[in-house]
Amino acid sequence: MIDTCKILILCVDDEKNVLRSLERIFLDQEGYEVVTAISGAEALNIMEHQGPFRIVISDYRMPVMNGLDFLRAVQGRWPDTIRIVLSGYADSAEIKAALNDGLVYKLLAKPWNAEELLATIDGAVEICNLRNKDSLPGPITEHPVPKES
Fold it and tell me: Which domain holds residue 103?
């Protein structure tokens, strides 16, 4: 069962050892729950039934549906989800275009640095929080403002 008080992160990679490594990074991090998928199709199904996910981290090179095609599908259906791509091919023109077009929030190179990954996630969470704060109706106050008579 997914804890709705935690920030849901979906990690997608066709290599199970990569998914296990990503899960280990978040084991000692409070406030996060990581769900994994081994393909874009499985990830879309998970998002449909277990979301909403605030953050999706996807490998770039996967069979059948590559990471950018998957992230385009995510953007179309869940535009507020922050999308991050993992790749050993940082010089890919397609990845650079995805960054420039706003499809991808950030590129993390494989192999990744755990501190950099966590800093990227912290930045993504901050963006989510700012978006949520901006979409709230009316002023945000700690205490109700009394009506004038």
Answer: 7-135
- Rounded mean pLDDT for each run of 10 residues along the chain, 149 residues in total: 73 95 89 94 95 92 91 93 84 75 85 89 85 49 38
CATH number at residue 58: 3.40.50.2300
Q: Across-strand partners of 107? A: 85
Cα 88 from Cα 111, distance rounded (Å): 7
In a domain, 104, yes or no: yes
In a domain, 149, yes or no: no
Sign, CA torsion 64/25/52/82: negative
Per the prediction, the chain carries an average pLDDT of 82
CA 42 – CA 146 distance, rounded (Å): 50
Sign of CA dihedral 45, 57, 83, 137: positive
Q: What is the 3-state secondary structure (H, E, C) of 18-82?
A: HHHHHHHHHHCCCCEEEEEECCHHHHHHHHHHHCCCCEEEEECCCCCCCHHHHHHHHHHHCCCCE
Number of compact structural domains in the chain: 1
pTM comes to 0.80
Q: Is position 142 within any domain?
A: no
147 lies in some domain: no
Amino acid at 98: A
